[in-house]
Design brief:
By secondary structure, this protein is an alpha/beta fold. The chain has 3 domains: about 1-40; about 90-245, Rossmann fold (3-Layer(aba) Sandwich); about 250-280, no CATH class. The protein is about 40% helix and about 10% strand. Helix 2 (about 15-25) packs across helix 3 (about 30-40) and helix 5 (about 95-100) packs across helix 6 (about 110-120). The longest helix has 14 residues, at about 110-120. Belongs to the ZC3H12 family. Its cofactor is Mg(2+). It comes from Sula dactylatra (Masked booby). InterPro entries: Rege-1_UBA-like, RNase_Zc3h12_NYN, ZC3H12/N4BP1_RNase_Reg, Znf_CCCH. Keywords: Endonuclease, Hydrolase, Magnesium, Metal-binding, Nuclease, Zinc, Zinc-finger.
Length: about 300
């Protein structure tokens, strides 16, 4: 009997030492209710409640270090956008470099400016795609400026070269635009380019929607990378919402009525009237009747009489 009572209170979450102590004080024949009252009077709490009352201490993690749960990731896998609230960025390197070089020079400095701009915003996943043949020494028909930047970005695992090779002296180049759109689509990210990729839009209807909704165009102003504040037009999302996985909806701001108290639109006015906050929204005719103290029912009867043939 003693063991069954101990087991019963252990299932409730009380400690075995507290239970034995109470049983010794009250005796072996004590009722379960009496034992429970004594446990409560002693201040003993079930272990489940104690674990809820005492939250686990917070672990301080060094900035930039990975948590214990992330140890199961592959070594080659990027510190991806799973916990990041910003969208992955996929940059069309050729388009950005030629735009910065005024379509005459492949300017690698333009790619660096674009990468730095997204880094400063906090984006962790940034990929730049450039054809492999851009590693070759520059020629007169394809000049390259600041080519060492490509090597630095490649070491940082930001730059990715799309394949190309030579067959019988002729260069065979893989279509880098397909890499750009495919990676951005799979990562649910943003494409940074001034190209519209019309051939790829016609090729895949899902890519067509994605390119229309996730293409971020840009301009270079005095060596400054500048995307638009409204990437999808005046009525579209802001740049912050466009680059964020969880866009923040702006609060509705009411524009005050330009006519003020002289407005004659009544409850049909779409503007804000601070003087009407505590007033019923009446029509202009009802407001006039109220001013001359004419009953509303009488005014409506007159309107019906005038409207009748």
């Amino acid at each position: 009997v003693h063991q069954s009572k101990v087991d019963f209170f252990c299932k409730l979450g009380y400690g075995k030492q507290d239970i034995c102590k109470v049983m010794e004080n009250l005796g072996q024949e004590a009722l379960e209710d009496d034992v429970l009252k004594e446990l409560i009077r002693m201040g003993s709490k079930p272990q489940a409640l104690e674990s809820q009352a005492q939250p686990s201490p917070l672990k301080l993690v060094a900035r930039g270090s990975c948590s214990a749960s992330s140890g199961s990731k592959w070594l080659g896998e990027d510190e991806s956008d799973s916990s990041d609230h910003l969208r992955p960025i996929v940059i069309d390197g050729s388009n950005v470099a030629m735009s910065h070089g005024n379509k005459e020079v492949f300017s690698c400095w333009g790619i660096q400016l674009a990468v730095d701009w997204f880094r400063e915003r906090g984006h962790t996943y940034i990929k730049v795609f450039v054809p492999l043949w851009r590693k070759e020494p520059p020629r007169q028909d394809s000049p390259i400026a600041d080519q060492h930047i490509l090597e630095e970005l490649e070491k940082q695992s930001i730059l990715v070269y799309t394949p190309s090779r030579k067959v019988k002296g002729k260069r065979v180049v893989c279509y880098d635009d397909r890499y750009i759109v495919k990676v951005a689509y799979e990562k649910d990210g943003v494409i940074v380019s001034n190209d519209h990729y019309r051939d790829l839009q016609n090729e895949n209807p899902e890519w067509k929607w994605f390119i229309e909704q996730r293409l971020l165009m840009y301009s270079f102003v005095s060596n400054r990378f500048m995307p638009p504040d409204d990437p999808l037009g005046r009525h579209g999302p802001t740049l912050n919402n466009f680059l964020s996985k969880q866009p923040v909806l702006p609060e509705r701001k009411w524009q005050p009525c330009p006519y003020g108290k002289k407005c004659t639109y009544g409850n049909k006015c779409k503007f804000y009237h601070p003087e009407r906050l505590h007033q019923a929204q009446l029509s202009v005719a009802d407001e006039l009747r109220a001013k001359i103290k004419v009953p509303l029912s009488l005014g409506k009867e007159e309107e019906q009489h005038n409207c009748s043939p």
